[in-house]
């Protein structure tokens, strides 16, 4: 299971470290640009993995519990319609 929150926190930590190194003059601007692109790519991969994991779980749930989901949805619609009718 991908941990998107941890990946995002790690991204921001690395970005802050890179900014501090740039402000100290340890890293040039082209190096900063290249490193930021790498960090964005890493975070993008983690996001894609999290989305794929979520979609796979939703598909699995749909295939395993299709009747229950449909029943609860129909019951919800009927209850809403009954509640708003005068």
What does this structure look like?
This protein is mainly α. 88% of the residues lie in helices and 0% in strands. It has helices spanning 4-23, 29-84. Helix 1 runs antiparallel to helix 2. It is elongated. The mean pLDDT is 94.
Give the proportion of residues in helices. Answer: over 70%
Structural class by secondary-structure content: mainly alpha
Radius of gyration computed on alpha carbons: 23 Å
How would the global form be characterised?
elongated
Instruction: State the order of secondary-structure elements, H for helix, E for strand.
Output: HH
How many extended strands?
A: 0
Largest sheet: none
* Number of helices in the DSSP assignment: 2
The whole-number mean of residue pLDDT values reads: 94
Strand content: under 5%
Transmembrane segments: 68-85
Keywords: Membrane, Transmembrane, Transmembrane helix
Record keyword descriptors for this entry.
single chain, mainly alpha, 86 residues, transmembrane, transmembrane helix, elongated, 2 helices
SSE map:
Blueprint: H1 4-23, H2 29-84
Keywords: Membrane, Transmembrane, Transmembrane helix
Transmembrane segments: 68-85
Please give a quick description of this structure.
The chain is mainly α. Helices cover 88% and strands 0% of the residues.
């Amino acid at each position: 299971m991908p941990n998107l929150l941890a990946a995002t926190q790690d991204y921001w930590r690395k970005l802050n470290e890179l900014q501090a190194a740039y402000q100290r003059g340890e890293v040039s601007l082209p190096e900063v640009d290249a490193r930021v692109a790498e960090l964005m790519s890493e975070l993008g991969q983690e996001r894609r993995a999290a989305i794929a994991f979520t979609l796979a779980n939703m598909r699995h749930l749909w295939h395993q519990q299709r009747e229950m989901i449909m029943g609860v949805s129909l019951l919800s619609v009927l209850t809403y319609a009954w509640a708003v009718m005068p």
